Amino acid sequence: MNRSLLGIISGLSAAAIWGGMYVVSKVVLEIIPPFTLVTLRLLLGGLALWLIRIFHRENKIETNQIWRVFGVGLIGYGISLGFQFVGTKLSTAANASLVTSATPAFILLFAWMILRERITTLRLAALLVSTLGVVAVIDPRTAELNPTMFLGNLSLLAAALTWALYSVLIRIVTRSLDVLTVSLIAFLGGLPIVIPLGTWELSRTALGSISLGTIEGVLFLGIISTALAMYLWNTAFAILDASVASLTFFAQPVVGSLLGWFFLKETITPLFLLGGLLILIGLIMASREPGT
């Protein structure tokens, strides 16, 4: 398969998985507090990738490489995921989709600052077209700007900013290491932050009633949304320019809306169809950039 196509499919697949993640997270967070859930998610994700890695022969890793990836994971899985879960807990799923849609714009900025990727007219146009598409899909009128949700929305913005930084740094560390190893070590990098916070959290907040649905939700978040989706996302950034890979992020609200239509019988509007088309056009525009 053409490597650029593989990168785009990987990014779209990760974003598609995350499209249903916010709804699952919102339900599970009613039972399990944020940092406890992030801890479970990283432990399950790390275990899944470790089980896969023991069957693969990978190149020897140097100590300095381990610490570099560990630091990248600290940003992505310790700080960013923490902000994301706190924001989802204190805000709404609709707000989470809207605020975090700023991630590709932040990635474009960090890619220029850190990777020296050119901000070309075509890439800016692709970002603008895709952003208009995601605004149409999400429909900002569904967002809640209640002052009581300010801290939640601020946490979601911080999650978008730090996830953008993580995504750009992933492109650097995967130049010398395979994606599976990078993903596994990065998961471990998040644990020094989330385990202490999760422990403190449990000392102050009791868990809700654990049901079979709660367990299924945790398994989905740990194995599918973390191990599989993060591996796919890291693969996209290892292959594509960060500014191109970032646009696959916009598949999240599209898939989320489609799931709402399929499971909750929500209405698919002409505005949604237009938005989905604009996102697709933006991705095609970016992929046609010379050198992609």
Describe this structure in words.
By secondary structure, the protein is an all-alpha fold. The protein has one domain (3-287). 77% of the residues lie in helices and 0% in strands. Helix 3 (34-53) packs antiparallel against helix 4, helix 8 crosses helix 10 and helix 9 packs antiparallel against helix 10 (212-239). The longest helix has 28 residues, at 63-90. The model has no long low-confidence stretch (mean pLDDT 86).
Quick recap:
This protein is an all-alpha fold.
Radius of gyration of CA atoms, rounded to a whole number: 18 Å
Q: H/E element string?
A: HHHHHHHHHHHHH
* Fraction of residues in H or I helices: over 70%
Mean pLDDT equals 86
Number of strands: 0
- Name the beta content range: under 5%
- Largest sheet properties: none
Number of helical segments? Answer: 13
Structural class of the secondary elements? mainly alpha
Instruction: Count up the domains.
Output: 1
| Global morphology | globular
Distance between the termini: 15 Å
Q: Which parts are unreliable, with pLDDT below 50 for 5 consecutive residues or more?
A: none
Describe the secondary structure blueprint for this structure.
Elements: H1 3-19, H2 21-28, H3 34-53, H4 63-90, H5 93-100, H6 103-114, H7 121-138, H8 150-173, H9 179-204, H10 212-239, H11 242-245, H12 251-264, H13 270-287
Helix pairs in contact: 1-10, 1-12, 2-10, 3-4, 3-9, 3-10, 4-8, 4-9, 5-8, 6-8, 7-13, 8-10, 9-10
